[in-house]
Design a protein that fits this description.
This protein is of the alpha+beta class. Helix content is about 35%, strand content about 25%. The chain folds into two domains: about 230 residues, 3-Layer(aba) Sandwich (Peroxisomal Thiolase, Chain A, domain 1), CATH 3.40.47.10; about 150 residues, Peroxisomal Thiolase, Chain A, domain 1 (3-Layer(aba) Sandwich), CATH 3.40.47.10. The strands form four sheets. Strands 1, 4, 5, 6, 7, 8, 9, 12, 13 and 14 form a ten-stranded mixed sheet that branches. The chain has a three-stranded mixed sheet with strand order 3-2-15. It has a three-stranded antiparallel sheet with strand order 16-17-18, with helices on one face. It is globular, with a radius of gyration of 20 Å. The protein starts with 5 loop residues before the first strand and ends with a strand. GO terms for molecular function: hydroxymethylglutaryl-CoA synthase activity. Keywords: Transferase.
Length: about 400
């Protein structure tokens, strides 16, 4: 009996229409631009308008991939974020309403730092195993904020990844088993009432590599997969140099062929992340999207390895098989063109936008006339967020 395939059927992405050039930020902070361009591996940083939040960006990403027929079959919406807009009500229920998904649906929000979307993906996989005719909409959306003139400032960013999970997926079949590892570690956190994250950067980077070594070794024990069995290795990218450090750790004893192949695919996979910055929960999956959009050497049938990490800390390494005609799962969207059409802002404009985001405000009307997005945050009335879908 042939086992049912379950995995990513479609994938979509959305970010702000504004960006800050990292050279401009470096000059304003009196830093060598190469500290940002090479040292952390970032070229641009998404600048999120006050009229955009995780719900609106998620709605835009999802709208790009889901059809009216998909909406009829979606029976679960799982929204992963660490930029939640309510401590009780899930972002998923707002999203389902904006998208016009039928009301006979489950809507939940999940959280574990940047690992959240992987937890959502695994939940979706288990649900489809029991309900093979259904589809699950998985979201990873965040606005990464550390603060102006803080050490983490150049690793900010934001956006949303939307994934439709189903049986017989078009893009990636998820394999078993996976390797997971967790410890209670204070490398990154955001206490209640804080709009900006707190982080011990150097410590967190070390934990990332320690957890990668642990789950890589565990996955090998479970599967026996060697470097030659992978077409590409993907990483959570809080900044793209972090993933490069992880890849180099894995490739320490690699053959020239394996090292050349996996390094080449990693460069394709980090292209979009270099242009956007940190997506937190969506970071790993933006890297996957970047790989399948930009690589001219990746092939269907190849195995993709994915390392997911969320501070605090949780890690998982899992694999998937790239499916025939996987490009169909992109729904014909030209993401490079979308990124190229963004508008640059100055450092002072970025700082103004950063300080204008609303948190814990009872009443406010936002000026959304300059925002041409399909979905907008109009303001707050009696602590109730008001959204507009066009």
């Amino acid at each position: 009996m042939e086992l049912m395939k379950i995995g990513i059927d479609k994938i979509g992405f959305a970010t702000s229409d504004l960006y800050l050039d990292m050279v401009d930020l470096a000059n304003a902070r009196q830093e060598d631009p190469n500290k940002y361009l090479i040292g952390i591996g970032q070229a641009k940083m998404a600048v999120i308008r006050p009229t955009q939040d995780v719900v609106t960006m998620a709605a835009t990403a999802a709208k790009r991939i889901i059809s009216e027929e998909d909406k009829k079959n979606i029976s679960y919406v799982i929204f992963a974020t660490e930029s939640g807009i309510d401590n009780s009500k899930s972002a998923a229920v707002y999203l389902a309403d904006l998208l016009g998904i039928l009301p006979n649906v489950r809507t939940i929000e999940v959280k574990q730092a940047c690992y959240g979307a992987t937890a959502a993906l695994q939940l979706a996989k288990g649900y489809i195993a029991l309900n093979p005719e259904s589809k699950v909409l998985v979201i990873g959306a965040d606005n990464a904020r550390y603060g102006i003139k803080t050490p983490g400032e150049p690793t900010q960013g934001g956006g949303a990844i939307a994934m439709l999970v189903s049986s017989n997926p078009k893009i990636l079949e998820l394999e078993n088993p996976t390797a997971a590892y967790a410890e209670n570690i204070m490398d990154f956190w955001r206490p209640l009432g804080h709009s900006k994250a707190l982080v011990d950067g150097k410590y967190s980077s070390g934990i990332y590599l320690d957890f990668l070594r642990n789950v890589w070794d565990e996955q090998f024990k479970k599967t026996g997969f060697k470097l030659q069995d992978y077409g590409a290795l993907l990483f959570h990218l809080p900044y793209t140099k972090m993933g490069l450090k992880g890849l180099r750790q894995i490739l320490q004893d690699a053959s020239v062929d394996d090292s050349t192949r996996l390094t080449r695919e990693f460069e394709y996979a980090r292209q979009f992340n270099r242009e956007v910055g940190n997506l937190y929960t969506g970071s790993l999956y933006l890297s996957f999207l970047s790989l399948i959009v930009n690589s001219d050497s990746i092939r269907s049938g190849q195995r993709i390895g994915l390392f997911s990490y969320g501070s605090g800390a949780q890690a998982e390494f899992f694999t998937g098989i790239l499916q025939p005609n996987y490009q169909e799962g992109l729904a014909g969207v030209d993401y490079q063109s979308i990124l190229n059409k963004r508008q640059a802002v100055s450092v002072s404009e970025y700082e103004k936008f950063f300080e204008s985001h609303i948190f814990d405000i009872e009443n406010i009307e936002l000026d959304y006339q300059e925002d041409n997005s399909d979905f907008l945050l109009m303001g707050v009335q009696d602590y109730k967020r008001k959204y507009l879908g066009r």
